[in-house]
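Support reply, case 0932

Customer input (verbatim):
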Amino acid sequence: MRLLRRVAFGLLAVACVAIVVGYQANRPAKAVSDPRVFIPSPGVYLHLPPSLRATIADVYWLFAIQYYGEHVKSDQRLDSLPATVDLVTRLSPQFREPYFFGAFSSIDGGDPASGYQLLERGFRENPEDWRFPFYLGFFAYTFANNKEKDMIAAQWYAKAASLPGSPPYLQRLAAELAQKGNDTQKAIDLWTQVYAQGDKYAREKAIAALDKLLPRDKVARQKAVAGLKDLMPPARFDQFVADLFQAYL
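Our regenerated output:
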């Protein structure tokens, strides 16, 4: 019975892929396809071996690209794209480009919230890739309408900045958004990290921002700065203190 079940699922998988390929191959070249296309549930394929699931994901990925290109230029209806992207990413969770493609195509479909959720799932599956929290920060900052959106975006950018391969400007971006969101201590911590890790330009930006965020009273400033000592090596911290207290000399 188990063997028969596996064979049946395999035949169903082949049939579904054949429908996608055959439909695209046989329709008139200039015809616009129906935006509502049958996309099977991921559960149909999850019993198959990983290599076969990946192959099926590739087929539907190519279909998703063609489907998007065709409809975004014609009727602008992307009814079946979310289901297609969901299928691809469920079958091949470490295939990262479909997450990004699906997230940004959700903007064209008028539903960026679903794109945000897709990126969250992609990040859970690929926690070492800085691009996921980076794009999550972008979506939060651009499309959220709540008061906390600056801080949510700042947290995502800070997370992205902590991952290998991330560009250096992300730490500054996180600090700027934390400052904009009026989370003073978080902004101070992030700008301090920018100073600790950055080049001359980054350090100048950090000092300019911290000069506005830290207390103006010298004693109060000294106390606040002392609490930042563990965020950088001693030699860099000495220069940090000197830069912050130039105006008090």
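We compared this against your earlier run and they match. Two observations from our side: DSSP finds twelve helices and no strands in the chain. The first helix runs from residue 2 to 26. Please reopen the case if you see a mismatch on your end.
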